[in-house]
Amino acid sequence: MKGIIIKTTGSQYQVGFEDRLVNCRIKGTFKIMGIDTTNPLAAGDWVHFDLADDGTGLIYAIEERKNYIIRKSVKLSKQSQILACNLDAAALVVTPAYPKTSTGFIDRFLATAEAYHIYAYLIFNKSDLFKHEKDRGILDEMINIYQPLGYDCIEVSALTNNSLEKITEKLHDRVTLIAGHSGVGKTSLINAIEPGYNLKINPISVQHKKGVHTTTFAEMHKLKSGGYIIDSPGIREFGTFDFVKEEISHYFIEMLPLIHSCKFNNCLHEHEARCAVKAAVETGAIHPSRYYNYLSILHNEDIFR
Ligand code: GDP
Ligand code: ZN
Fold first, then answer.
1. Region 245-303: CATH code
2. Is residue 157 lining ligand 1, measured as CB closer than 6 Å?
3. Considering only CA atoms, which residue is closest to atom 6 of ligand 1?
C-alpha cells in the first residue's frame, strides 16, 4: 500500500492513505539517498507500507523525493533535518502594508524556492484595503516588479472573498507550502477557501527556540478540494537556504541568463568590471529593488523584516 506522510511525531508516522489516516512505524532502519539526517522520513514522503491486523502500518520503503526543504540541526554538525518534501508549490502571502511585507523578504523567498526547484507564486491579500489611489500605487508597484519576471501574482481578499477561486485553482491537487508574515491573512484565506477548516498556522514558534534542538517538523493538511497545505516550518526555515555567494544570482531568474556575459566567471555582480548584471540594472532591465535585495543576500544581511 502506498500513502503520503502527513505528520511525524518521534518514531510514529501518520500516513494518508485514500481517505484514511494510518499510524505507521518504520520497519527496522533504512538509509535514504545518502543524506545524513536526524529524521529519515518527513511530511510529503510517499511511502509503501503493510497493514497489520490492529490497523497500524509498517513502512518498508520510501519513494524518491523530487525535492525537499532542509535545515541544519546544529551549527557545526553535518546532520540536517528534512522539514518537508515533494512540494509542488510554495505560495507567499504578501501585504504591501498592514502589515508591510518588504521586497527583501519576497526576494529571499523566491530565491529559496528557485534553489529548491519549487514553483513559487505570490498571493497579495487584503486587496480591499488597496482600493484608493495612494494605496493602490504601493500594491501595483510590487506587482510590477514580480509579474514581468513570470511570477504569478494573485490579488485577493479573504475579507470580501474577492478572487478566492484563483487560489483554490492553484492549490488543487498540489502539495503547497504557505508562507508569509504573521498578520498577512494566511489563516483567514485558508478558512475562506475551506470553511470550517480552522488551520492553526504557527510559523513563529521556531524562531524563539533558535539554536535549540527542536522537533518542529512540518505537518500537512488535506484540503477537501484536493491537495495539501503545509504549514509550520515557517518562513525562516524556508528562507535560510545555504546560499553559496557565487550562486545567488542563479536564483534571481532575470540574472541567470546574463551571468555568462560577465567578464569574470566568478563575478559577484558587485564591483567587478564589465558585469552584465550591473549593466542590466543601469539600463533598467533589472529592477533596482531586485538588485539591492540580491546584494543584501550576498552580504548576508537580515532582510526578514
Ligand atoms: P495570519 O497571521 O497570516 O494567519 O493572519 P490572520 O488570518 O490571522 O489575519 C490577520 C488579521 O488580518 C486578522 O485581523 C484578519 O481579520 C485580517 N485580514 C485577513 N485577511 C484580510 C483581508 O483580506 N482584508 C482585510 N481588511 N483584513 C484581513
Ligand atoms: Zn557580473
1. 1.10.40.50
2. yes
3. 185
pLDDT tens for 178-217 read 989 889 999 899 889 888 776 554 443 444 444 444 445 6
Q: Does residue 111 contact residue 297 with C-beta atoms inside 8 Å?
A: yes
Q: Which of 188, 189, 197, 202 to mutate to test the pocket of ligand 1 (most atoms within 8 A of CB)?
A: 188
Distance CA 105, CA 303 (A): 6
Q: Please indicate whether residue 125, judged by its CB atom, sits closer than 6 Å to ligand 1.
A: yes
Per-residue model confidence as pLDDT tens digits over 15-31: 999 888 999 998 876 65
Cα(157) to centroid(ligand 1), Å: 9
Distance 78 CA to ligand 2 centre (A): 32
Which ligand sits nearest to residue 272's alpha carbon? 2
Q: Which fold has domain 2-62?
A: OB fold (Dihydrolipoamide Acetyltransferase, E2P) (2.40.50)
Name residue 4's amino acid.
Answer: I
Q: Residue with C-alpha cell 494573485?
A: 154
Q: Where along the chain do the CATH 3.40.50.300 domains lie?
A: 70-231
- For domain 70-231, give the CATH number: 3.40.50.300
Query: Ligand 2 center to residue 247 CA distance, Å?
Result: 11
> Buried (b) or exposed (e) across 110-144, using 16+ Cβ within 10 A?
bbbbbbbebbbbbbbbbbebbeeeeeeeebeebbe
Residues of CATH 2.40.50.140 domain(s) within the chain? Answer: 2-62
